[in-house]
Amino acid sequence: MSDGSLDGRTVLVAGATSASGLAVSRALVAAGATVVAVGTRAAGLEALRTAVPGVTTHACDLSSRADVDALVARIHRDTGPVDGLVHLVGGWRGGGSIAGQTDADWDFFDRGFRTLRNTTRALVDDLVASPAGRLASVSSTAVDAPTAGAANYAAAKAAADAWVRAVAQGFRKDAPDTAAAAVFVVRSLDGLEDRLGDEVVRLWDVDAATVNGTRLPLDPSLG
Hints:
Elements: E1 10-14, H1 19-30, E2 34-39, H2 42-51, E3 56-59, H3 65-78, E4 84-87, H4 103-129, E5 133-140, H5 151-174, E6 179-186, H6 193-202, H7 208-211, E7 215-217
Parallel strand pairs: 1-2, 1-4, 2-3, 4-5, 5-6, 6-7
Helix pairs in contact: 1-6, 3-4, 4-5
């Protein structure tokens, strides 16, 4: 549990209608954060508001930079600058072989990467200016051990990892003592949602330089 370092902080959770989004939102609210939860499904957002009282929700297509910019402007107007971004947009589709890695599957995974690019570009100035700016995303062991059947997935996750590390380098230069970007690595998030919530909260309990640019195993079996 946070030691109070999240009190007064605003955190945007992207992809919040997933099971992991629910767990992360619940953990952040319990730690004192103001949570702005973003998704595309109205029913999912309504269910999230019921399950986690106090969460503010917004429907937004995060793959559209224009829509993201409009969302951030609204958050700035209604809530203020953002101190944290937790990116949980993703999903899984297998192709079976290299020849089976279809363009439709790639577009599915690339959309998740675009949401990461759009949200970080729109919020990076907020995170740098914050006294405790944090970016967190979730990656996969497939980045280090890609297979033919999951080539599209692994390539998109690798691109996202590289993007977060690039953000971390920018933090190292522009806000070395206050901002951090980290990647949580899993084989599968199933059953680890609550642990993810706890570990996201813990990012605010450690020095920024300690976690900036790190890939953190979420599954205990990964060591």
